[in-house]
Design a protein that fits this description.
- The chain contains nine helices and no strands.
- It is an all-alpha fold.
- Helix 1 packs across helix 2 and helix 5 crosses helix 6.
- 36% of the residues are buried.
């Protein structure tokens, strides 16, 4: 989400104008809120959260078109010649798809982590909505990746595989996902 947000923040989708360092410096409070939300929902320890810094994703680094292709799951395809991958229109499309995909996967990870940590839906859903709002804003400040839209994509992309008859998911897991689905829907529909 950081790379996508940094590219989207340029408004030009020209990769030579991207500065992840500047993007993060301007949004340091949002990044702290995001990490705090993740830590809270998943009940991660400080030691576990230190891994984030070790990965280097929150430091200045280049954003090659190949990263965007990866984060967008290659939906755009690989154009020929390969340099077309850096054209602003292609970069914009990859950013939009990457934001949709990565935020949906992020929501799935948050709900799964909350369930694994034993965080009851009534308590965890509000924090997930708040954290998803921060992540959505980091990825795309224009509102194109609003939490309500991410939730709806998550619901159709992830829940059927978990909740369908014969999925093999344990009853407790199914009940947990259903509870989070209901709690998230309630919170996001009242916003």
């Amino acid at each position: 989400m950081v790379e996508v947000g940094a590219v989207n923040a340029t408004g030009s989708w020209n990769l030579s104008e991207v500065s992840v360092g500047d993007f993060l410096a301007d949004r340091s409070e949002d990044v702290e809120r995001l990490l705090d939300g993740i830590r809270s929902v998943a009940r991660f320890s400080e030691e576990a959260m230190a891994i984030v810094d070790e990965l280097g994703r929150f430091r200045d680094h280049e954003v090659p078109a190949a990263f965007l292709l990866l984060w967008s799951a290659g939906v755009t395809g690989v154009p020929q010649p390969l340099e077309k991958l850096e054209e602003p229109e292609v970069v914009r499309r990859m950013c939009r798809m990457a934001a949709d995909l990565q935020l949906t996967l992020f929501l799935q990870a948050l709900v799964t982590a909350a369930l694994a940590a034993g965080t009851e839906a009534g308590r965890g859903a509000a924090r997930i909505v708040e954290t998803l709002g921060v992540a959505s804003s980091l990825a795309d400040r224009t509102g194109g990746s609003a939490p309500g839209l991410v939730f709806r994509v998550w619901r159709v992309a992830h829940l059927p595989g978990i909740l369908r008859v014969g999925s093999g998911a344990p009853e407790q897991g199914e009940a947990g996902f259903r509870a989070y689905d209901q709690a998230l829907e309630h919170l996001l529909e009242t916003r």
